[in-house]
Task: structure prediction
Amino acid sequence: MPGFLTSSCPAPPPADLAPAPPPDPESLAYSLTLPAALRSPAIVRTTTRTVLRAHGLAELTDAAVQVAGELASCACRSAPNAEVYVSLRYRQNALRVIFYDGHPRHTHPRLAEACDARRRADLRVLACVVKACGGDWGVGDAREPGGGTRMWAVLPREGARAYAAAES
Result:
């Protein structure tokens, strides 16, 4: 018919299809590559908060947002290149937050110790939060091609829940 537009877009799905169920905790698996910039820790905190809420893990928010922000800040300060990588995973009743930055691990023992001491000092708040949650954290060689440094924290669900209750 003249004057009518036609579309080659497919028809919408039938109305009787039920919406997909919300994500469950065990399906939480996200990875981001971010610029090593001042704004990136805020992006990581916001993303962590949103992801936890979407997966029904809002009770982990207080501890997880603090830990993710601390790791992001340290990674962005340490990265000699323009990017850092973050991974958020929930497995075996614990949230795992992992950061990779391009700062190579030093081969000279004194340089390696000085660099690790600086990172540990930068992560004092993280260490306190992780300890209060009964979790674990560390710094080591990246397991990715190209090397760099891997920083990680594990927050058990019950410990992070207790941390949030104690902070209230």
About this structure: The helical segments are 40-54, 61-78, 109-122, 124-133, 157-167.
